[in-house]
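From the pipeline queue, job 12 of 40. The input is one protein chain; the requested action is below.

Action: predict structure.
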Amino acid sequence: MAGLTSRLAGLEDIAALRAVMTAAIGELQKGFLTSEQIESSRTIMGLDSQLVADGTYFIIEADARIAGCGGWSRRATLYGGDHTPGREPALLDPAMDAARVRAMYTHPDFARRGVGRLILQLCETAAKAEGFKRLELMGTMSGRPLYESYGFTPIEEVIDDRGGAPVPLTRMGKAIAT
């Protein structure tokens, strides 16, 4: 993780964040999904600007560029961007619910350099500070190895076909370190 810095995203970062997401979706899922599934992913993935507004979305920078982004949420939506149907903005109860890790993307130029792990650490620390005891996320096939190495375990296998082609996903959870 040497050379990586983090900061909270602001509304002025949204266009740059979307560019990182487009690159990540298009490149890092190759070998895991078909081209049709990658296109379908664009409907069910992306930036939820509520995370930026809530102050829970991080930007990781390296070499004066956005290397990646991701965040956590105290809201019920588990995954999806502003354009994804079925979002639920209701607030979660930290005593009963798991905080959500959301919208994690690494620019392909920075893949496998610790960007994702840093985002997970930042999310876990922030959620813990607000009283959450567990984390949940919806993992892509390309992201699942990182999540498992960080301690997430599968809860449920899901197929999301709202974008056309069926995209396999895994709902995963983890206890927050004490």
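Job complete. Residues 5-175 form a domain with the Aminopeptidase fold (CATH 3.40.630.30).
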